Fold this sequence. Notes:
Blueprint: E1 4-13, E2 20-30, E3 35-39, H1 46-53, E4 61-66, E5 69-70, H2 76-86, E6 87-90, H3 102-112, H4 121-130, H5 146-159, E7 164-168, H6 176-193, E8 196-200, H7 204-209, E9 212-215
Parallel strand pairs: 3-8, 3-9, 6-7, 7-8
Antiparallel strand pairs: 1-2, 1-4, 4-5
Helix pairs in contact: 3-4, 3-5, 4-5
Amino acid sequence: MTELTxxxxxxxxxxxxxxxxxxxxxxxxxxxxxxxxxxxPSGSGKSTLLAVAGAxxxxxxxxxxxxxxDLAALTDAERxxxxxxxxxxxxxxxxxxxxxxxxxxLLAAASVAGRPARRLRAxxxxxxxxxxxxxxxxxxxxxxxxxxxxxxxxxxxxxxxxDLLLIDEPTAAVDRTQAAALTALIATTAKQRGCATLxxxxxxxVAEAAGATIAR
Length: 216
Ligand SMILES: Nc1ncnc2c1ncn2[C@@H]1O[C@H](COP(=O)(O)OP(=O)(O)OP(=O)(O)O)[C@@H](O)[C@H]1O
């Protein structure tokens, strides 16, 4: 089981005169098996922190430890590999490929991660069933609702069994009933799989269900 820890992480964004400090000497921990809520006002740096945690962005200072690996010290190629093999990232938009069906989204991601996609079809279908999409397996992404797209993205991330799951605003596009169900699903899955799960959110439903909180 893998823990994520940030030690003294600082990030500034923008160029020249527009360069702005966004994260200043941040220390934070996200334990395996726990849904950790990342909360704070708009513009406080939640998405930036997710990007640093997911090896998308290298901090200017500090260490980002995923298990024993300092993501801040890796080369670009090594960080790309960590992203492919160890991190599941669910963006607010879902980030799906419009022309592919829900099942194909998962199989394409498996293929990119170097897994034998042809042998994984049944597992992909059951990952989608787990997020309540058994009836949408063969719908193209551009014909899914916003909430269904995000659940497909969640199934895709979980399907690859990441050490670290990063989710940006999972409940922004769903109604209150679905928000509670989706939050419960994320918390249960984190616990069952022992996956460190960091969720940026403005939603009190998510914050209340979380086992830990990082406040920005
Ligand atoms: N490329 C950039 N150049 C300069 N400033 C940036 C850049 N990207 C983001 N910022 C600034 O960094 C700050 C943090 O942004 P970030 O998206 O991490 O906040 P957030 O907490 O996720 O916000 P929200 O809740 O609205 O999504 C904001 O003030 C934003 O304007």
